[in-house]
Amino acid sequence: MPTESLTPVVRTTLTADICRKMVSHLIRGIWSEGEKIPAERELCQKLGVGRASLREALKALEIMGMIETRLGDGTYVCKRSDFFSRPLLWAIASSSEADAGELVEARTLIEVELAGLAAERAIPENLKQIAEQLRNMEKAKKNPQDFVQADVNFHLAIGQAASSSILMNALHLIRNLLQKWI
Q1: CA 64, CA 68: separation in Å to the nearest integer?
Q2: What pLDDT digit, counting tens, does each position of 41-70 carry?
Q3: In a 10 Å sphere around its CB, with 0-12 CB exposed, 13-18 middle and 19+ buried, how is residue 55 labelled?
Q4: Dihedral, CA atoms, 173, 179, 180, 182, nearest 10 degrees?
Q5: How far apart (Å, rounded) are the C-alpha atoms in residues 26 and 143?
Q6: Which of 10, 69, 86, 159 is deepest in the core (most CB within 10 A)?
Q7: Measured between alpha carbons, how far is 64 from 122 in angstroms, rounded to an integer?
Q8: What average pLDDT does the segment 139-144 reach?
């Protein structure tokens, strides 16, 4: 009887199991962006775990950028684009300026594709939103901060019109990385 298919059993800690279960909830969107997650006592009861293990798991999730604890207010889910960009940010944080150029290149490619999809899929409401953002950019020409925000809103309006959540998430990710790089 061959035994080559046997592999070592993976041992995990209770904290790791709690963390995996909560990550699954966050990634599947069971708790949405900005939503307050249940209090520790309730989470302990639902998961059948002690407070110490839960707190360790929550700290890990906070370090990963998936949740944010607000003293006296509770624990909230961070924006998906923020926590998805963290590992990439770590990977490029000590990289060269050439990598920043590659991020700009990737953003350009994604935005071109989004514009093409928007041209095919936009509904009248999308077109109104794009036009409004163009007007906002025109008004903000003399104020760099307002112009940058209007420009971001313009590109996001195009992304909404494209109706591609995966490409929009990729665009958010790249924009977050560029902002942190800058």
Answers
A1: 10
A2: 999 999 999 999 999 999 989 888 889 999
A3: middle
A4: 140
A5: 38
A6: 159
A7: 36
A8: 91
